[in-house]
Structures are given as structure tokens and as C-alpha cells.
Amino acid sequence: MLEQLLMSLKVMVLGMGTVFVSLIALIWVIEITNKVLNMSQQRDKQDINHAQKNPNKAEAVNGNFSESRRDDTIQEDEEEIIAVITAAIAASLNRSTHDIVVRSVKRVPYNTPAWNRVGRNQQIAGRL
Amino acid sequence: MLEQLLMSLKVMVLGMGTVFVSLIALIWVIEITNKVLNMSQQRDKQDINHAQKNPNKAEAVNGNFSESRRDDTIQEDEEEIIAVITAAIAASLNRSTHDIVVRSVKRVPYNTPAWNRVGRNQQIAGRL
Amino acid sequence: MLEQLLMSLKVMVLGMGTVFVSLIALIWVIEITNKVLNMSQQRDKQDINHAQKNPNKAEAVNGNFSESRRDDTIQEDEEEIIAVITAAIAASLNRSTHDIVVRSVKRVPYNTPAWNRVGRNQQIAGRL
Amino acid sequence: MDKPFMEVITGFLSDTGFAQISWQQGIMIIVSFVLLYLAIKKEYEPMLLLPIAFGMLLANLPLAGLNDAPTGVYGEADFQPGGLLYYLYMGVKLGIYPPLIFMGVGAMTDFGPLIANPKSLLLGAAAQVGIFAAFILAILLKFPANVAASIGIIGGADGPTAIFVTSKLAPEYLGAIAVAAYSYMALVPIIQPPIMKALTTKEERQIVMEQLRPVSKLEKIVFPIIVTTLVSLLLPSAAPLLGMLMLGNLFRESLVVDRLSKTAQNELMNIITIFLGVTVGATATAENFLTPDTLKIIGLGLLAFAAGTAGGVILGKVMCKLSGGKINPLIGSAGVSAVPMAARVSQVVGQQENPGNFLLMHAMGPNVAGVIGSAIAAGVFLNLFG
Amino acid sequence: MDKPFMEVITGFLSDTGFAQISWQQGIMIIVSFVLLYLAIKKEYEPMLLLPIAFGMLLANLPLAGLNDAPTGVYGEADFQPGGLLYYLYMGVKLGIYPPLIFMGVGAMTDFGPLIANPKSLLLGAAAQVGIFAAFILAILLKFPANVAASIGIIGGADGPTAIFVTSKLAPEYLGAIAVAAYSYMALVPIIQPPIMKALTTKEERQIVMEQLRPVSKLEKIVFPIIVTTLVSLLLPSAAPLLGMLMLGNLFRESLVVDRLSKTAQNELMNIITIFLGVTVGATATAENFLTPDTLKIIGLGLLAFAAGTAGGVILGKVMCKLSGGKINPLIGSAGVSAVPMAARVSQVVGQQENPGNFLLMHAMGPNVAGVIGSAIAAGVFLNLFG
Amino acid sequence: MDKPFMEVITGFLSDTGFAQISWQQGIMIIVSFVLLYLAIKKEYEPMLLLPIAFGMLLANLPLAGLNDAPTGVYGEADFQPGGLLYYLYMGVKLGIYPPLIFMGVGAMTDFGPLIANPKSLLLGAAAQVGIFAAFILAILLKFPANVAASIGIIGGADGPTAIFVTSKLAPEYLGAIAVAAYSYMALVPIIQPPIMKALTTKEERQIVMEQLRPVSKLEKIVFPIIVTTLVSLLLPSAAPLLGMLMLGNLFRESLVVDRLSKTAQNELMNIITIFLGVTVGATATAENFLTPDTLKIIGLGLLAFAAGTAGGVILGKVMCKLSGGKINPLIGSAGVSAVPMAARVSQVVGQQENPGNFLLMHAMGPNVAGVIGSAIAAGVFLNLFG
Ligand code: NA
Ligand code: NA
Ligand code: NA
């Protein structure tokens, strides 16, 4: 009995020890990462500030990042659209917007029938 | 040949017998269940009638059931909303509503990013 | 080394040969199919032209095809509806329609709760 | 690769399907084209007939090897994996796909009309007579009992049940039986009306039935639990099909696991439908399919549908008499299942006599009862011959 | 079939479940009804408790054979396939389902609040004390170490982790442990508040915490990669659960594989939830479940939850002191995981004292940390007893 | 557990990954980070490269055991289940995943532009020369024929085909070949334009092509049936890939099984993409990946893409001449497949010379023809070396 109690206490110490050691290590790494990333982001920001004064150069320097920023813009746009549609529905229903949420407004999907889209544009262009 | 005919007739009697016995047993059980449930529901209704006169007590007695009733209300609400949206679309299309059915209007999902929702509310509150 | 080169050249000839033979065979078959189908379609068209003068007969002759044509009509209708809804949303958002695409407007699904639908109609009829 | 080049090419050519195809395989390929035509142009149960027909096409292309078993032991050097359809077919062979499809069907089915009028179950029982009539005739045509049972179950007008029973009792007949079952299910609007009209009078067909009582949410929740418990105790061999049907229905009616209900009736069911259809079709190799037995199966299947329809309508007439004319016997034919096609046929035939007659809701009771009835009949066969 | 008819019928009747059911199976069926009631009416974690209860029902219907193993060799003539649940259970037995569910959970989880306040991880660590407290008591109650570990892991308040560990260490206890784990997760709003109030002062509960800093997209992307690498190096046995959790989270945060993220958290997760629930429930046969051990497990499970809650709150108090009153100790209880229920409990208890207090976001940090913590504790047990 | 405590801790520490990691594994972990960066930040085919990179990370964490094979016999007491990725990898090893992905691709592909201009097929054939050029060079670099074939197929610019062939012919190279194939597919917009410009004149690039004729619904339905039958008869070993590609396309074009079409191209494909990506990545252990062969593979892969591009463009120039200048040779480069990226490249390069030139629709013909062509080339290799 006592032996079992001792064994199980050992397991507890080992287990809680492992949990704490792992998670404390994780805290350190998260904080270090945070600092490293913030440093590089601040450098980025400076680059951007600098770049905005020389817009032509910006294109060259931040080429890779421009895409992700475009992404954010799209997302914000979408939120705006959703907000407008929600408001419209709410208005016609005479309700508060807290209650209703338009979950998504989809645009033309980017990946699938890409040539359809262009084809369509072509056909439209052909009729002009 | 005759033997096989006899065998297959036995199978038929046994088979149709099993089918009928099972389904007749099911009829009984459904009818019994129906009666039992109706009895308990009528008792519930009386409770509710009783409760509506003493609203404070109702909360206590029917606590468990209130949730499901709330659910029904939500569903009815949703049907109402769907009806309104359908009518709006139909009006703008100058069509009868028989033809078009808005399949679903989604609210904020309950389960997934619950803290997002609260976080959002917090942020909204923070800006006020 | 030379032997290996020879072997691999054989594989290349065999491989490219198979690819070209298969795909050229495919070209022939597609072109033959195209001609056969076009011939039968033109015959169909003539039938239709003929039939449109005798509408009663048309029903009998083209019974099997009417369904698929009905389908096309529905699809066109749907595109029209989608166009209208898109325009409405775009108008209220004051944007061009190039940007927004209503992906789908769903009708009552055909397969699943067929009896629900009739039941609903019945109930509606019952209230009239 | 050290061989002379011409020999390599000759060897390569002799490996083409053109060099190896038998005339039987040619015929099977044409049969698969006909089935594709029926599935796509005529919309004969396309959800299953299209994959079945394509599987049939793939299985009859010589040397494609999609059905081949593996050789050697997995993980060892000499292992040669089997064909794609060999592996996907395991879900049929092991009896996994049909119960999962039943779960999806359960999640799509509203048993309300049956609960509102439990006597419908009698009509769903009577229509199973087609199964046993076809079984007797198949025995008389010298089919062994296990095959005769698989043929009979075509009369259940329920694809997954037919596939489940046949895969266990007579897998070499799977292709023919599945094709027959789904084809006749698609032909229900053509097979049933003449029988229904021949067996009923104009007055009977005009009977308007009382509106069904509303069914409470609680009854709908309790129903699948009761059916599972009661029927599985009476006939344990029906538990895989009925249990999963009722699990799906409980997902639907409980209203608390909407996610699971939707997945069971949509993505999971679609995935399994694809795998089931293609692999069942792929059992229809020339060797298995191009036999006189297939013609007999097609004949017996038609008879099973007709006898089931008649059984339902006749009990409908009896119940009409006993109820003092309150029951329209036309709803009896819906007892063969083939949900919801058979119920629509009852509706249409009833409306032909009386345009104001709405039988669909009343016919849905026997219709869904027929699914339960067929599953029980399947359980009897599995118990006796499995 | 050559036997006299009466004999056939007698044989048939003796094959019914009614003739074979034991009273223990009857009790188990009633237990399954109670669990169905809790799942549907009381909404106790219905997504898993409903399938578990139905699996329990199916497994205790005599002769239904849904759990039966196959006999013979696949592909040979004498092969008899096993039951549906036998095959679906392989995903549990082989440890496939829980990591895939974790992938879905990862795709649904926002680790932002944890990244914003990494010290939350300490609270998520402290709450794991419940696991080891229950383990010690289980050892003192004479459970073997592998079973005691499986019982302890109930205190992780994390269903898939409990199932993963138990299926590897003590599969015969799977039913009881899964039922206990999910029931207590549903009861978190009842179990935790009294403990939280007993251990904190009114002043502590009123503490309003500072708003969390915003977390950049890049930090959220880097987080799952770091956690996988670091924790898997420290404790390799935690890699299956944590690795898949973090893969799902990377799907979510990377923003470039939206399709995969949605499928992981919806259809794939739903399909596996159905299979997992039903088959785990089906391990709860009368033989396995109706033992005194089950009662002990239920008791120890409750204790584990209570101890974990206390552990989190007590460390919360310590951190409150050390931070000079900036941390509300109520967020410590969220460290048991049970996402997002436990965090909501922190929010509600906090608001009872101070209606303007919004703790939810702050409690989400320890809450998701608790998931990581339990996975690590599970890894320790698997390392020691696996 | 009876051992002295220090010994337990020492044993526990020696079980950590830090104590066991080799420098090769460390390098592989860094390689996986680089691939994650390319997948997420550069969006190099993230749908597959992200799971591949994560699988690589998991497989190189020492002792995590996600790839481990089981020991003992399933169902017996001494059975130790294998790792998650061991089981999921079976779908690759048995050749199940790639054909199912092809089914989804088929359901997403519109073969209309190819049917409207069947001569595109010649360009799709010519671009396969890259496959065989890389094969020859690989042979000269002393690779055995089966490995050389797997390397060559990178030039098919078609991930599932490359994985299918490699998993059958040279599974130990799977990681390197999959990484090369998907990376170069992502790099198509960088690799192709210089070659296209070098091989064409300004006048050729400015050619505006006639609008394609409309393609009827019936032609689109008949097309997948014909391709399956004809090509599978000519080259049976291409049937698994091409047959499933065409089944998916038939789901799409038949318009009667919309449910199946959507599931094939969405949920089913996403689930399999996750499993395929992670397990293929997990074959890239340090032992398999960190060899000089990997560098050679990367070099040969680049060469294969370049040669395929050149082959397509050169045949395009020939066809341009023969047609009297009606065909813009830029559409030839799209024949390498990499749908729809390569077709977009044709469009962009064409527009650079003539802003009013819309080549995309015309390039889609060779582009989808390239998928068929690569599948045929794969069939040749499987026939010769399988
Ligand atoms: Na039936
Ligand atoms: Na936890
Ligand atoms: Na290609």
C-alpha cells in the first residue's frame, strides 16, 4: 500500500513536472518569438514608411508581402459588404443587427473554373 | 421439386409471419407510447396553465423544459424571417413565392468561436 | 553506358509513341463523335421545327427530350434570378456587378422531403 | 529492356486491351453504355445507376486490373497492391456501406406520417409478399436457396437492403441484382399503375382520407429508439440495417446534433454512394453477368415488384372494407418502399380519379413502413441462409 | 430447411433476442435510454453522448452481432465478415480517430488569447493536478497502473484525449471512462462554481483584467509550428495528439488552405465523431460496464474534475498575488479545458460579482492551454505505461 | 516503477527527443520549416505543400513514432498498434488516394475547350517529351530504371500522377519527388516564360486565335465515356487514373448527380488531400531525403519541366506553320498540365505582346490534354517497370 502510494506520488511529481516544464518552455519560446517577430515587423514598418515616400521602390522591396496585404484589404471589404447587407435585411425586418448575421457573401471562386471566368469576359468583350 | 416448393412455402410463411408479427408489435408499442406521451403532455399542459398564473413558480417547475420551448420560438422566428426575405426577393422579381424558397438564414453559430463573439462585443463596447 | 542510353531511347520512342498514338486516336474519335452527334442533332432540330408546326405531335415525338429542355429553361431562369439579385445587391452597395457574384439561389430541393412539400401545400390549401 | 526493340513493341501491343478483349467483355461494355444512357438521359435512379454502370465499364476493360486482389504480404518486398476497386469493394464485402447508407436515409426520412397512422405498418408488411413470391419462383427455377433469397429481396424495392443481403448470401450475383433492383425502382411509375387500377374500383380510388393528426417532437424522438430495441430483440439479424436507419433518424429528430445529421445525409452518404455504386457495378464482369441467370433475375425482379404492389393494394382493400371506407386502397401500393417514388405514384393515380384527392401524406406511412418491412424480411433471410 | 416446420419455428424463436437477453443486458439498455435522455433533453455534450448511448444500446441487444469479429480469412470461401461496429472500432483501437478529431479541434481553435498572454499556460498546467490526484486515488483503490492512468485522464476534461489514452492502456474500460468524461464535461457549469467561490474572496472575483494585446497573423502561424516541434521533442509520446491539433490550427491560421481547414473541422470531424461515438459506446457491454469499477470510475472522475478546478484556481490566486492583483483567479478554473464551457463558467462567475467584468477572453487562454496540458499528461502516461 | 526515482527521471529524460535527435533530423526539420514558408508565405501549391511539409516535420521528430508499423496481430493481447501516419499511408501505398483525387479533379475540369479543338491533344502529347528526357538523363546518372521513371514523371507537372507512379515504382523516393513536383508546379510562372520567349518570334506570340466553337452538353457527356474506353483499351495500366478522372468528369457533365459531383470535388477530395499530403511528406525521413539523389532529382525535375515546355512550344510552332499561322505557339507550353497555371502563363505571355490577345481558353485545351497525356505516360512506365 505504502509502496503503491510512493509509486503514484512519483508518477505525479514526474507528470506535473513534465507538464510544467513543457509549458514553461513554451512560455519562453512564445515570448522570444514575439520579440523577434515584433522586431522584424517594426523593421518592416520602417521599411514601409520609408517606402511610402518612394512608392516605386516599395514595389520592389516588399513584392512578396504585397499579396498578403491585398488579402487583408479584401477581407475588410468583405466585412464591409456583409455589414451593409446585414443592415439592409435588418432594416427591412425592423430588427436590431445584433440578432442577425450574414455569414458569408461569396465572390467568384478563384481556383476552379478560372478559364470560364476569362472565357466569360472574352464573350462579354466580344459582344461589345 | 415438390419438396422444394414445400420448403419455400415454409420460408414464406415464416418470413411473412415474422414481418407481420414485428410490425404489429410495433403498432401496439407506437400506440401505447402515443397514449403515455399524450397523458404526460396533457399533464404538462395543465402544469403550464397553472404555471402561467404563477409565473415565478413556473420558472422553477419547468426549468428543464424552458430551453426546448425557447428553441421552438427561435425556429418560428426563423421561419418568419425567411418568409419576409422570400417575400422581398419575390417582390423585386415580380414572381409568386411558390417558386422561390430561401432555404436558410443563418445566425451566429452557437458553438464555434464563442469567445470571438464575446471578444467582438467587448471591442464594440470598448469603442463606445 | 551506351547500352543504357539505347535502352532509355527505346523507352522514349515507345513512350512518346504511345502518347501520340493514343491522343491521335482520341482526336479521330472526338471528331467522328462530333460529326455523328451534330448530324443527329440537326435531324433533331428539323424534327423540332417540324414539330413546332404540329405542337400536339411534338409532345409525342420528343417526349423523352422535353425533360432535359425543361431543365435548360430552369437553368436560364435561375441565371436570370441570380442576375436580378446581384443587381439589387450591387445597387444598394453602389458598386459594379463585376465584383460581386451571387453564387446560387436555391429552390425547394426536389428529392428530399417531397411529402413535406405536398403536406405544406395541403395545409395551405386547407386554410384557404 | 534488353530484348530487341521489335519484340518489346510486340510485347507492348499484346498487352493492349484490344489484343485481349473477349466478345463477352465487348457486350458488357455496350451494356454499361445502355445503363449510362438510362441513368443520364432517362434519369433512372442516376445517383446509383451511373456509378454502377461506370464500374461495370471499368471492370470489363481487359487487363485494367481495377478488381485485382493483391499478391504478397503488405509491408514486405514482394507485395503487389490490388486494384482500386478491390479495396473499395471491401466496404461492400464486409457489410459496411449499406448500413451507413441506411443511416443517411434515416437522417433524411420523416417517420411522422407513419407515427400518425401506425396501421400503415400493415400495408408495409403486406407489400413484402413480393419478396417471398419471387423467392418461391426462384426456388422452382432451381436457384439455390441463398441465391433465391437474394433475388427475392429485389422485391423489397430498396437498393441498400438488396446489396447488403446479396453481398452476404450470393456475392457473384451482386451486379445483376443491383442493376435489377435500381432499374425497377426507377420504373415504379410504369409498373405499378396498371396493377393498382386492375385491383381497385373507381369508387375506392376516389376515397378522400382524413387529414393526419400532428405528431409531437417527443413521439418522433421516441420512435427510432423503440423500433431499434423492439425489432432488434425480435429479429437480431435485422439490427445492422434497422439500427443504423434509426440512428440516422434520431440524429434528425433529436435536433441537438444537427451537424451529424447533415453529414450523415450529405457528405458521408455521397462518398459511400460513389464507392458502393462503382464497386457493385464492378462485380458485373462478363463471366458473372452474361448468363441465363441474369435474364431470370430480371424476370423474377419484375414479378417481385408486381406481386408486392398487388399485396399492398389487396390488404388496402381489406382495410378499406374493415374501416368502413376510410382508407383508400391506393396507398397500399406504396408499401413496396422505393421512397418516395411509390408514394408519389399513389398520389398521382388517386388524383387521376379525383383531382382534389391528396394521398401523398397518407401514402408516406406505408412507404416508410415498407423500408422497415424489407429490412425485417432481409433479416429473416440472413437468419435462415446466412 | 428439411426439418419439421415446428422445429424451424422453435429454432427461429430461440434465435430472438427476447429468448437470449440477460438481465444485465436489460439494465444496460435502460442505462442507454438514460444517457439518450441526458444527451437529447439535457443537452449533455449531445454530439458525442448521443452516439455513445446508441452504440451502448446496439451492443447490448443480444445476437445482433454488431461487435462480432470476423471468422476465416478475407477472400476465402469460409470467410464470415464481422459486424459493422467491429470494423468501425478499428479506428479507435488503432488510435486513428482521436488525432483526427484533434485536427478538427485545432482548426476550430483560436490560440490568440493564449499567445497574447502566455502565462495562461501555467494555469493550464496547474489544472492537470486533477489527473494525477485521481491517478493516486485509483492506485490506492487497487486499480492497476494502466487503468488508474486512464481513469486519471478523465480529469483532463478532454474527450478525445481520454479515449486515445484508454484505448491504448485499458480498452475494456473505454465505455465507462468515455461516459464519465463527457458527462462531467457537460456538468462543468454545475461542478465548478462552488469550488471557485469557496477558494476565492469576493475582491479577487471582482478583479477586472486588462484588455489583451492584439496578436499578429504571423504569431498565430508560428505558434502551432513551435508547439509541435518543442513539445514533441520534449515528450515524443504526445506527438500524435498535439501534432494533429497543431496541424489543424495551422490549416486555420495559414489562411491559404481554407478548403482543408473547413473540411477538417466540419465533414471529416463529423464523420469521425459518429464512428467514434457509436463504437466507443459499443464497448460498454454489460460484462464490461456493470461492475463496481464503473461506480468507482464515476466517483474518481468527479474528484478529478474538482481537483483540477481547485488546482487552477489556487495557482490563479498565487499569480494574482505575484502580479499585484492584475490576474483574476477565476480564470484558473478554465485550465481544466472542456473548451469553451469552462471559460464561460469563469465569465459567468466573474460577472455575478461585477456585471461589467468580461473574463471570457482571458479565460480562453488557460482553457486552450488546458488542452495542451492534458495532451502532455496523456503523453506522460503513454510513455510510462504504454 | 519500483526503480529509484532518479533512475526513472534519467530514463524519462533519455526518452525525450532532445536526447535522441540526430543532426540529419535537425536539418530535415529546418527543411520542413522552409517548405512551410514557401507554402504559406509564397503560396507554392499550399493545398499540398503545407501538409507535405508538416508530415515531414512529424516524421523527423525522433521517437514520435507516427510512421511506426504495428507489432503483433490485431485482436490479440500482444498487439501494439502502429502510428497514425502508418495507417493513413496505406491509402498511398495501395494506390487508393491518387485515383480518388483524380476523380475530384475530373469533377472540377471542363474539357469543353479540348473538345472544341481536339488538335490541342497533339500539344498535350508533345509536352510529355520532358518526362522521357528526364528519364534518359536519370538513367545516364545511374539511377535504376524504376527510379528514373519516377523522376521523369515529375515532368508530367501533375502531382497525383507523380505520387501514384512513385508509390508503385520507387516509394523510398516519394518525399523528394513529391516535393519537387509540387514546387515546380508552383514555379511554372517563373520557369516557362523565358523558354517560351526564346523559342518564338514576336510575330508568332502576337497571333490572335479564332474563337472556339460552342460545345454541346451531349458532346461533353460522351467525351469521358469515350476517353475511358479507348485509352483503357490501348493502355490498360492507365485505367485507374484516367478512369477515375473521367468518372468525376461524368458526374460533372451528366448534370443528374450534382450531389456526387460536389462531394467528389470538395469534401472527399479535401479529406484525401490532407491524408495524402501528410503521409507523403512523412516518407521524407532524413535517411531517405538527405542524400545526393535528392539534389539530382531536383535538378532533373527542373530539366523535365523545361524540356516539356520546349516540346509543347516547338510542336506549337510546327502547327502554326502547317495551319498557315492560325495557331499561336504559346499555347503549346500549357501542354505540360499544371492546370490551370500553365494556361494562365500562356495568356500572360501572349498579352505582353498584344494586350488584346486572349489565349486562356485556347491554352486550356492543351492544358487538360496534358493531364491525359501524363496519365498515359505514367501507364507506359507502370507497364514497363511495374
Ligand atoms: Na420495401
Ligand atoms: Na485539460
Ligand atoms: Na502533364
Give a quick set of tags describing it.
heterohexamer; A: 128 residues; mainly alpha; 4 helices; 0% strand; disordered C terminus; D: 386 residues; 21 helices; binds sodium ion
Question: What is the count of distinct domains of chain D?
Answer: 1
Radius of gyration of chain D: 23 Å
- Outline of chain A, from the CA principal axes? rod-shaped
Query: Count of DSSP E strands of chain D?
Result: 0
Cα distance spanning the termini of chain D: 51 Å
Structural class of chain A: mainly alpha
Give the biggest sheet of chain D. Answer: none
User: Segments of chain D where pLDDT lies below 50 for 5+ residues?
Assistant: none
Contiguous runs where pLDDT drops below 50 for at least 5 residues of chain A = 51-78, 86-128
Beta content of chain A: under 5%
Helix content of chain A: over 70%
Total helices of chain D: the number is 21
Task: Describe the protein's topology.
The complex is a heterohexamer, with three copies of chain A (128 residues) and three copies of chain D (386 residues).
Chain A: H1 2-53, H2 55-61, H3 63-93, H4 114-127
Chain D: H1 5-14, H2 17-20, H3 23-40, H4 46-59, H5 84-93, H6 97-108, H7 112-116, H8 120-126, H9 129-140, H10 145-152, H11 159-169, H12 174-199, H13 202-206, H14 217-234, H15 239-254, H16 258-265, H17 267-282, H18 286-289, H19 292-322, H20 341-353, H21 360-385
Helix pairs in contact in D: 3-4, 4-12, 4-17, 5-17, 6-11, 6-15, 6-16, 6-17, 8-19, 8-21, 9-10, 9-19, 10-11, 11-12, 11-21, 12-19, 12-20, 14-15, 15-16, 16-17, 20-21
The complex binds sodium ion (3 copies).
One sodium ion is lined by residues 156-158, 336-337, 370-371, 373-374 of chain D.
